[in-house]
């Protein structure tokens, strides 16, 4: 590829903005990129576009794009068995999952029960494991799986365990996914294999958001080694004609891995006047870089 990295800040101000439509809370979640991706996908003029997240987690942007009608299909991949089980439950057992969300007690005692299910990691029962993951994701501090419950085990904090568990809203979000399950493909493969499966498809758009370098294992269920980051970069760079965006924390090591690509610092702006996210790093495929550079996607 011929694109060179630039230190010009890519200021993402998408023409369209959507509320939170994913039922999951995720550290560093990128749901706010959905409007920008919608602009890019429209500018690329893809036919019945497929949106692919090889490291999906909460798939915040992907769910928004599917629900709002900007993509025809959604591919949700996550190697972690608990995350994968949640997405299987949401797409194949949605009614049962919604019933659990509506009825399970929001108490420390129930939190302990669900934590035990999560730790057992029995993915032969995706409904049970997927709900346990979901329960901890919604009741733990910042949605982090190895954190304690909101408010602490003694529930003495300003916020209690139910602070992020709005049952009607979460059921609504889950039902929106269940209604579109026939357009969602769920898998738990290595993220690089998902890139290899879809990056050659001219009508696919890939958002590649791997575990960040600096965070390591503190935020992510599956931390990456330096070798994992290098292997992913080699895989992505093998598809110069694909439509993809990779996001990372801004680290010299990542810049070296993608040297020669369209690598830019970026910041998300929720309004015209206020930035509410720290600057990170985006690597754009030539096709995506082209529509951004020509102003067909609202950035800059």
Keywords:
300 residues, alpha/beta, Rossmann fold, Adenine-specific Methyltransferase, domain 2, eight-stranded mixed sheet, 11 helices, 8 strands, 14% strand, globular, disordered N terminus
Q: What can be said about this structure in brief?
A:
By secondary structure, the chain is of the alpha/beta class. 38% of the residues lie in helices and 14% in strands.
Q: Please state the average pLDDT score.
A: 88
Number of domains: 2
Number of strands: 8
Structural class: alpha/beta
Please tally the helical runs, counting DSSP H or I stretches of 4 or more residues: 11
Shape: globular
C-alpha end-to-end distance: 22 Å
**H-E string:** EHEHEHHHHHEHEHEHEEH
CATH architecture classification name of the largest domain: 3-Layer(aba) Sandwich
* Highest-level CATH class of the largest domain: Alpha Beta
Percentage of residues assigned to helices? 25-40%
The radius of gyration over CA amounts to 19 Å
Low-confidence stretches: 1-5, 216-220, 270-275
| Main beta sheet | 8 strands, mixed
The neighbouring-strand order within the major sheet is 1-7-8-6-5-2-3-4
Q: Strand percentage, roughly?
A: 5-15%
CATH superfamily of the largest domain: Vaccinia Virus protein VP39
Please describe what this structure looks like.
This is site-specific DNA-methyltransferase (adenine-specific). One of its GO terms (biological process) is methylation. The protein has 300 residues and is of the alpha/beta class. Helices cover 38% and strands 14% of the residues. It has eleven helices and eight strands. The chain has helices at 34-44, 60-67, 81-92, 94-103, 108-120, 126-139, 167-179, 191-198, 226-237, 252-257, 286-293, and strands spanning 6-12, 50-53, 73-77, 184-187, 204-208, 244-248, 262-268, 280-284. The protein has an eight-stranded mixed β-sheet with strand order 1-7-8-6-5-2-3-4, with helices on both faces. The longest helix is centred in the middle third of the chain and has 14 residues, at 126-139. The radius of gyration is 19 Å and the shape is globular. Mean pLDDT is 88; it is low at 1-5, 216-220 and 270-275.
């Amino acid at each position: 590829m011929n694109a060179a990295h630039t230190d010009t800040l890519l200021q993402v101000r998408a023409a369209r903005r959507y509320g939170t439509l994913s039922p999951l809370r995720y550290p560093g979640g990128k749901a706010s990129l959905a409007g920008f991706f919608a602009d890019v996908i429209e500018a690329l003029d893809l036919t019945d576009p497929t949106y692919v997240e090889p490291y999906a987690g909460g798939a915040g942007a992907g769910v928004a794009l599917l629900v709002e009608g900007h993509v025809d299909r959604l591919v949700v991949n996550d190697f972690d068995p608990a995350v994968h089980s949640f997405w299987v439950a949401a797409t194949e057992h949605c009614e049962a999952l919604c019933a659990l969300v509506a009825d399970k007690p929001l108490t420390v005692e129930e939190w302990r029960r669900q934590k035990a299910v999560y730790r057992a990691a029995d993915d032969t029962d995706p409904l049970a494991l997927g709900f346990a993951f979901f329960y901890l994701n919604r009741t733990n501090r910042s949605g982090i799986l190895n954190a304690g419950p909101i408010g602490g085990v003694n529930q003495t904090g300003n916020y209690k365990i139910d602070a992020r568990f709005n049952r009607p809203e979460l059921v609504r979000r889950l039902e929106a996914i269940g209604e579109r399950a026939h357009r969602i493909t769920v898998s738990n493969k290595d993220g690089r294999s998902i890139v290899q499966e879809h990056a050659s498809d001219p009508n696919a758009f890939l958002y590649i958001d791997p575990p960040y370098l600096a965070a390591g294992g503190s935020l992510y269920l599956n931390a990456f080694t330096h070798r994992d980051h290098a292997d992913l970069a080699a895989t992505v760079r093998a598809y110069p004609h694909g439509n993809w965006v990779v996001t990372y924390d801004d680290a010299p090591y990542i810049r070296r891995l993608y040297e020669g690509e369209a690598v830019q610092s970026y910041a998300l702006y929720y309004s015209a006047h206020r930035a509410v996210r720290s600057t990170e790093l985006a690597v754009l495929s030539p096709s995506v870089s082209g529509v951004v550079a020509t102003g067909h996607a609202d950035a800059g």
